[in-house]
Amino acid sequence: xxxxxxxxxxxxxxxxxxxxxxxxxxxxxxxxxxxxxxxxxxxxxxxxxxxxxxxxxxxxxxxxxxxxxxxxxxxxxxxxxxxxxxxxxxxxxxxxxxxxxxxxxxxxxxxxxxxxxxxxxxxxxxxxxxxxxxxxxxxxxxxxxxxxxxxxxxxxxxxxxxxxxxxxxxxxxxxxxxxxxxxxxxxxxxxxxxxxxxxxxxxxxxxxxxxxxxxxxxxxxxxxxxxxxxxxxxxxxxxxxxxxxxxxxxxxxxxxxxxxxxxxxxxxxxxxxxxxxxxxxxxxxxxxxxxxxxxxxxxxxxxxxxxxxxxxxxxxxxxxxxxxxxxxxxxxxxxxxxxxxxxxxxxxxxxxxxxxxxxxxxxxxxxxxxxxxxxxx
Length: 377
Hints:
The protein has 377 residues and is an alpha/beta fold.
């Protein structure tokens, strides 16, 4: 199963909106076929592993697969049908298919055909692999994830704005890996104007990858200067989408569109975009996950609106000890720990001298925001 998990990870970021799945066919204790989910529309891992064998498996062959085989006929046919036709008599599965329409049905089909099915092997790791898909298929909306890099006392920059670099090379390389997974990255106008980030995944030995690049700019401040940010003029500019409001001005909207940059003008009575509307627009566009990298104003707005689904929190072993240094997020009035926002299903990773804590965001039943009480139920 660990080999199947490695194979699934080899499809990192390539299968959206489908999950990453790995499969291994074993005969007499030896691997005779392997497969990983092909890009959307291509063969599933189970079929590829069976095809790799080159002939019908021997009696007693076992198929290991990280996710429950699909049991419905899509563009590639049901994997359960392929397994049954191949004569495999034992299937070992990492995790159930989270799709409510499919969950458990693949097991039923295989067992009805006389196949022995073992489930829950390395289950937590197999589930964690498909964070984006699991959220997308159960909610119909994209996973909105926030990334922060802070000191031990929760600061993202000195009072002067100096922030390069809080985390080290290993942690920053890990960010590039997550950028490669998510279909889209998002930043606010302030971060864009201050840092002029490229917002691509740059991994040594791998071709530079550009996801969809969202820029949240309710007033189109980032378009007013003669020198435009790189994301509006580089070779990937067609993958940049500026999310704005009617208050930004149609002249700037036309300027961006003339440059080949897409613009989403979202309805709003203020200069801020409603994240509920943004979620819906992403869902309509088939964008299953967005990785928000800042800045603090954008992330704080996400937090106040209870719209962060998942958090990546990188922490460096340094302390600023300055109450005027810039905090990671703000805007809540948390007077009791019971009202704190928490993480569940937390995973910790040591990255050189730094630490990554990541997990699902759970909001309290009531949140206190700018002296207003919001019930989240």
